[in-house]
Amino acid sequence: MSSSVTYEPVKFLSVYSASKAAVNAFSKSLALEVEPFNIRIRIVRPGASPETSFEKNAQALKEKAPEAYILALQEYFQSFQHSKASYKHAIDVANVVWHSVTDPSKEVHDLPAGADVEEWAKNQN
Fold it and tell me: Do 113 and 92 form a contact (C-beta atoms < 8 A)?
């Protein structure tokens, strides 16, 4: 399971983004190694969801942030309040995962899971 943050740079999430980018690179390399054994690798990149603790954890960042960052963090998180209509729910992500594991093709699937992420994915290439 990866993350939508690997499609677009996201403020204040550099370490998280780097760790998810590493998951993507690892998965793509692993797919080459295990393909002769008929093992398929899938990458699912969910978008924002109100059913995870991601937003709560990100909000906690404000409590630990240096004072100079607090205003920028508040403005950034307020911008998310206007885009919640495109959030995915756990069942939507589960459906993408189910599709990815039941698809018999051998190619590496890199699947966005969420309306917000689908738009980012289109702009990748």
Answer: yes
Tell me the domains of the chain and their CATH numbers: 4-122 (3.40.50.720)
Q: What is the pLDDT of residue 86?
A: 60
Residue 19 confidence (pLDDT) = 96
Q: Work out the average pLDDT over 88-107.
A: 84
Alpha carbon distance 61, 48 (integer Å): 17
Sort residue 13 into left (φ over 0), alpha (ψ -120 to 50) or beta: alpha
Annotate the chain with DSSP letters as a single string.
---GGGTS--TT-HHHHHHHHHHHHHHHHHHHHHGGGT---EEEEE---TTSSHHHHHHHHHHHS-HHHHHHHHHHHHHHTT-GGG---HHHHHHHHHHHHH----SPEEEEESHHHHHHHHT--
Place 30 in a pLDDT band, splitting at 50, 70 and 90: very high
Query: Over 70: is that where the pLDDT of 74 sits?
Result: yes
